[in-house]
Design brief:
Length: about 260
Amino acid sequence: MKTTINELAVFATGSDKNKALIFVHGFPYDHNMWDAQVEALSKEYFCVTYDIRGLGESPAGCGQFTMESFVDDLEAVVDEMNLVKPALCGLSMGGYISLRAVQRMESKFSKLILCDTRSAADNNEGKLKRAAGIKKIDTEGVIPFVNEFIPTCFSGSYMKNYEKQYKEVLFRSQKNDPVGVKGSLLAMLSRTDTTESLKNISIPALIICGEEDTLTPPDVMKEMSHRISHSNYVEISGAGHMSPIEKSTEVSNHIKKFLKD
Ligand code: MLT
């Protein structure tokens, strides 16, 4: 089922009688990045995905986004869909949104799954990289930006052995509205650091990281996991930053087990 909430494209699969699980995608992707997890989990869970404002099918509007406005959007989806304490699963930028959402309103969620993400805000080098990205989109367009960024997200072996699937993701990302892509860059550049509040998270957390993730590497995610009281860290061998796509069955099985426990 597809619906529109707050202008956002929202997708629900499975019975709404089941416990809800909401997925928040990474940058510059869309809800389709969770296809394998939705397929694996929607018999037992009411799976909700949505396109973050400005990406996929959700309109970019003015493109002046903040992490706070992204969290407002997540809250609107949870409230409008009447999701009762859904489990929350976010990858990378979706993880930044999830971490800030839990900091703001933990009681709305039952469990937290963080894939290939970090709690720290961008340092100066990171901010300058985002600014260079915005400039590249302005001067060269969104396709050259995406073509340069996306290979940094996947392991070399995935790009080589699953070329067709990799290209599908690449082509979908190339279609994003440049205003929306720049808006995400601005929101990430200006986000707050949630590291100090990790110790306050009381819901169970599953931390998933691709062994070959160079953007949010295993040591960063292990450290995050140590700071969260009820958390379990799993590393996905041979996967890069996009572990739910690269090793979809393994990631889905970890999520399944975590939700059952
Ligand atoms: C993502 O996958 O969402 C991005 O790598 C996040 C980022 O650029 O910080």
